[in-house]
Design brief:
- This protein is mainly beta and 120 residues long.
- The protein has two helices and six strands; from the N terminus they run H-E-H-E-E-E-E-E.
- It has helices at 15-20, 38-47, and strands at 28-30, 50-54, 61-66, 77-87, 93-104, 109-115.
- Strands 1-2-6-5-4-3 form a six-stranded mixed sheet.
- The two termini are 29 Å apart.
- The model has no long low-confidence stretch (mean pLDDT 80).
């Protein structure tokens, strides 16, 4: 059962909302890519909060481990990989995450999702 639902206008700088969100460890949060704030994603990781969002096209990252896609997975799943995102001044800050690439045949749109808390 959701404990928080918030809609904002498209013109608002949505990433500010993330700094206002404080959830219990084990919680899940999902939001649009307009909320991009990798420092907040890192905070969620440290607090044990999972997130799902779309990855921006211009995100800077390196690919680490690549995971096998299970046979029973939806046929739209193209990739499952660990990534390291770079952000902050001169890209010196790093955030480890997981990237799932998916082809949505209903909308013929390619999108990538990020899921937090990659195992050490």
């Amino acid at each position: 059962m959701p404990c928080l639902v918030r809609y904002t206008e498209a013109v608002r700088h949505d990433h500010v909302l993330l700094s206002e969100v404080h959830l219990e460890a084990g919680s899940y949060i999902t939001f649009d890519k307009g909320y991009v704030d990798y420092a907040q994603y890192e905070r969620f990781t440290k607090e044990g909060v999972f997130y799902v969002t779309r990855l921006k096209d211009n995100a800077q990252y390196d690919v680490g481990e690549k995971f096998d896609i299970p046979d029973q997975a939806d046929s739209g799943v193209l990739k499952d990989e660990e990534i390291t995102l770079y952000y902050g001044k001169n890209g010196k800050e790093k955030h480890r995450s997981r990237r799932i690439a998916y082809w949505d045949a209903d909308y013929t749109a390619y999108s990538a999702l990020i899921h937090l808390n990659v195992p050490d």
